[in-house]
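Q: Here's a chain of 131 amino acids. Please give me its 3D structure as tokens.
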Amino acid sequence: MIVVDTNIIAYLFLGGEFTDRAEALLQRDVEWVAPLLWRSEFRNILAGHLRRKLLTFEEARDVQAEAEDLMAGAEYEIDSRRVLELVRDSDCSAYDCEFVALAARLGVRLVTMDTRLLAAFPDVSMRLPEN
């Protein structure tokens, strides 16, 4: 089991520079988990793709459904107090700290490419592995 941030999920479903690495990660560890927040962040990424005309509405809708299928049953509510403690002790956003809080709670690693998270929480976070 690993916690993945929203960008890792996006890399998996939206072709790009890190797609191969996200696919390889999923093959190595099929149990991905995330805070419920990932859905809103992912929709925001899709909104950007829609506005830049990289996806049609139907494609965006289908990608969202596929991502939700992958993450079904693997989404967690996060304790607000813990998130605020992590914000207090770092320069990371509350959004990012939700992923850190979940990884710490479950005793697993957070996979991310966010350099700020990697620097602030080296004991919990790890970079998306090379293939």
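Q: Can you summarize the key feature?
A: Strands lie at 2-4, 32-35, 75-76, 110-112, 125-127.
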